[in-house]
Amino acid sequence: MTRTELYEQEIRAELAHLKAELDSLQVEAARKKLEQESKLDDYLKTLADKSEEVGKKLDNLRESGSDAADEIRAGLTEAWERLAIAKNAAKAKFH
């Protein structure tokens, strides 16, 4: 075997090793992408749940008598604050 053939064989082996590393990195990137998508789905579900909670509190406020309005208003404010916190957390995580 000539020196050129040995050199070519060495470079091909290094390229094969590099390709295996790249394949591994691609698999890892895909896995992380799925994890991020899953986390985003979790954040979106949390936001939807919190939004629904605020909507229910608004419905309760509309249906309540004036005696219960202050108590419901306090619960609505708390629910709104939790929704804002969840929204800001999601935006910070995925922007």
Would you list the SSEs in sequence order as H and E? HH
Roughly what percent helix? over 70%
What is the CA-atom radius of gyration, in angstroms? 28 Å
User: What share of residues are in beta strands?
Assistant: under 5%
Shape descriptor: rod-shaped
Question: Structural class of the secondary elements?
Answer: mainly alpha
Terminal-residue CA separation? 56 Å
How many H/I helical runs?
Answer: 2
Mean pLDDT: 84
Low-confidence stretches: none
Question: How would you describe the overall organization of this protein?
Answer:
- There is one protein chain.
- The protein has 95 residues and is mostly helical.
- Helices cover 95% and strands 0% of the residues.
- The chain is rod-shaped and about 95 Å long.
- It starts with a helix and ends with a helix.
- 1% of the residues are buried.
